[in-house]
Amino acid sequence: MEISVKINGKDIKADIKPNTLLSTFIREHLNLTGTHIGCDTSQCGACAIHLNGDAVKSCAILAAQADGSEITTIEGIASGDKLHPMQQAFHENHGLQCGYCTPGMVMSSIKLVENNPNISEDEIRKGLEGNICRCTGYHNIVKSIKQAASVMGG
Amino acid sequence: MYDLQYSKPSSVNDAVAEIKKSSDAKFLAGGMTMIPTLKARLSSADMLVDLKGSNLSYISVSSSEISIGSMTRHCDVASSSDIKGSLPALAKLAGGIGDHMVRSCGTIGGSLANNDPAACYPSAVLALGATVVTNERSLKADDFFEGMFETALNEDEVITEVKFSIPEKATYIKFPNPASRYAMVGVFMVKKSDGISVAVTGAGENGVFRCEEIENVLNLNLALDALNNIQISHDDLTSDMHASAAYRANLIREMAKQGLKDLI
Ligand SMILES: Cc1cc2nc3c(=O)[nH]c(=O)nc-3n(C[C@H](O)[C@H](O)[C@H](O)COP(=O)(O)OP(=O)(O)OC[C@H]3O[C@@H](n4cnc5c(N)ncnc54)[C@H](O)[C@@H]3O)c2cc1C
Ligand code: FES
Ligand code: FES
Fold it and tell me: For residue range A90-112, what is the model confidence (pLDDT) as tens digits?
């Protein structure tokens, strides 16, 4: 079947099999491999992207369901060489170790902050329930998001 | 995932017509259960009929009743100021399902049709005595749930709406499984003019159930210490890798004790 999506600002038409996952479409058809796959159970959040303005898990959605929608992946949030405030904050606060969970953390937390600009530390920790990190112990991730929130909010 | 076809009809009638075309067609709502189970080949479908185009996402609130379209997402229920005003326990329940990314996709209709024994919404529907409206009929909550992952729905039947009458007071207390976020035990408690009703999810061998042991005590004595010394029978409760039946029985009492504060 044919689908058309706008991804990171670019209009794309593609011919896909209806059982293609959105994450597979993004990684293997469009070669945008920043979106990661960390589990089989839709629990880890490494595959988070923005779909029509919401953070979602691209491994639990069919590409067919995204027909006609607007998608942003981790590759689409910086402006040229200027990192998104969330990326910059992860960089400055050592919010990652191996980096595997990081694209999902960044995409998920951008929406947490956009939907709640004065987000508290407690709300950040609760908000990250759907994003699992095996390395950092979360403290620096939370610090990064707090810093980004102050930049994004003001 | 096995091969399948996908269609997105633009009305409920068209969706039902589409589903009737094949014996293994299934409805698709938010996909938060459907896609992971298809992916794991725990289920299969030769055709997915997406309900996204059928205009079933809405919330309407009157002085006595809340009607929620079946395709309304958990995040929309959680953030609705009308629901927060008239039945805050339901907004809290929806806001505690999974994580914010699951809540951006998952729907009330999908959750009820699936009737996962650890899902949150079934407890609200049962305790509030809600009505599940389909394209064919209206089902009372008592007649809708028929055991683990089983409901009264026919294969071609679509949930279109859920109607809740607004009680005096209600609360939902959940002890989430720390890995999956589903309810290890969730207790939905309601105070209506005709008495107290309490529904428990996450714990029953046959899915969601009314807890008469607690209801009977509270209908006689609605006091903060009323549940301190009761014993919940664990005969029909689940034992699994997460918790024994006895542990769940204890959690039911403890969650209900917390909830009691909101009913008094
Ligand atoms: C990581 C994770 C955590 C979760 N945590 C929780 C939790 O804490 N509490 C909780 O309650 N749930 C939880 N869920 C489940 C979530 O709430 C799902 O949204 C829900 O179970 C299914 O809803 P859906 O809209 O995604 O339906 P789908 O997955 O699209 O459909 C589920 C089933 O219902 C059928 N169906 C869907 N809509 C209709 C309809 N209108 N009429 C008839 N049949 C229909 C489908 O054919 C399918 O069989 C979690 C899910 C995930 C992935
Ligand atoms: S890969 Fe999507 S949640 Fe783990
Ligand atoms: S940085 Fe390694 S998984 Fe999070």
Answer: 999 999 999 999 999 999 999 99
Same domain, B69 and B156: yes
Are B63 and B161 found together in one domain?
yes
Question: Is B23 within the bounds of a domain?
Answer: no
Query: Among A56, A75, A94, which residue terminates a domain?
Result: A75
Interface check for A141 against chain B (CB to CB < 8 A): the answer is no
Ligand 3 pocket: which of A47, A96, A141 to mutate (most atoms <8 Å of CB)? A96
| Cβ atoms of A125 and A92 closer than 8 Å | no
Residue with tokens 């706008």: A6
Tens digit of pLDDT at every position of chain B (264 positions): 889 999 999 999 999 999 999 989 999 999 999 999 999 999 999 999 999 999 999 999 999 999 999 999 999 999 999 999 999 999 999 999 999 999 999 999 999 999 999 999 999 999 999 999 999 999 999 999 999 999 999 999 999 999 999 999 999 999 999 888 899 999 999 999 999 999 999 999 999 999 999 999 999 999 999 999 999 999 999 999 999 999 999 999 999 999 999 999
Q: Residue B250: is it exposed, middle or buried by C-beta count within 10 angstroms (0-12/13-18/19+)?
A: middle
Nearest-CA distance B237 → chain A (Å): 25
Instruction: Please indicate whether residue A131, judged by its CB atom, sits closer than 6 Å to ligand 3.
Output: no
Three-state secondary-structure class, residue B31:
coil
Question: CA nearest B79: which of B94, B64, B69?
Answer: B94
Q: Tokens in use for B104?
A: 């951006």
CA distance B227 to B244: 21
| Domain assignment of residue B106, yes or no | yes
Q: Which domain holds residue B241?
A: 169-263
CATH at residue A140: 1.10.150.120
Of A11, A45, A75, the one marking the end of a domain is A75
Question: Residue B13 corresponds to which tokens in the numbers above?
Answer: 């009638």
* B221 HSE (CA, 13 A, CB side): 9
Spacing, Cα A105 to ligand 3 middle (Å): 9
Rounded distance between C-alpha atoms, residue A31 and residue B77, angstroms: 36
User: What domain range is A105 assigned to?
Assistant: 85-151
Q: Which spans in chain B are helix H?
A: 12-20, 34-39, 74-79, 81-86, 88-95, 100-103, 108-114, 121-127, 141-144, 212-220, 245-263
